[in-house]
Amino acid sequence: MGDNFVINIGRQLGSGGREIGEKLAASLEISFYDKELINLASEESGLCRDFFEKADEKPSQPLMNGLFGMRFPFPNDSIMACNSCLSNDALFKVQSDVIRKLAAEKSCLFVGRCADYILRDHPRHVNVFVSASLDDRIERLCQTMHVGKAEAEELIERTDKKRSEYYNYYSYKTWGAAATYHLCIDSSALGVDDTVLFVAEFVKKKLQL
């Protein structure tokens, strides 16, 4: 791994977490991964991208009838059970291997997907959680997704619940809780660009870059 480092970003929907992550990665000149992980996991496993799309940030459940949704200790498990090859757990294992492989090869920034838990043993990592006021989140979704306020608020509630269940299930920690991360920041306080600058300074000091 050498001098490689990783930044893992958790985020509330509409907080600007993805944009902050993308700009932060660009400013630090490191690789950025979000939805790109779905393509990479599909290529690595030879499984259809649709399986990973359906399982993306969702806790364990069978994707096809007749397959077991059993859970097993993935961080130390190198072999996928054949009868669980299409369960969310097994797809999480594939995606976890991709994340570890990328982090071993170069410095990266990962958005979501329990990357902070998956890379908890990486010698140089920073875990950040981005939140924002509900009003700002609703406004951002209305602008970016072209939906009404009621629909935006419903989407926020549904997505945050899904992300929380996914994270809590796989990490055994609490999504969004301060004790889970090195830094929790409200992007409403500074705005996206100044939040990027603030987090970049924090990362540089923590990792002595």
From TrEMBL:
This is Cytidylate kinase. One of its GO terms (molecular function) is kinase activity. The lineage of its organism: Bacteria, Pseudomonadati, Bacteroidota, Bacteroidia, Bacteroidales. Keywords: Kinase, Transferase. Pfam families: Cytidylate_kin2. It comes from Bacteroides graminisolvens DSM 19988 = JCM 15093.
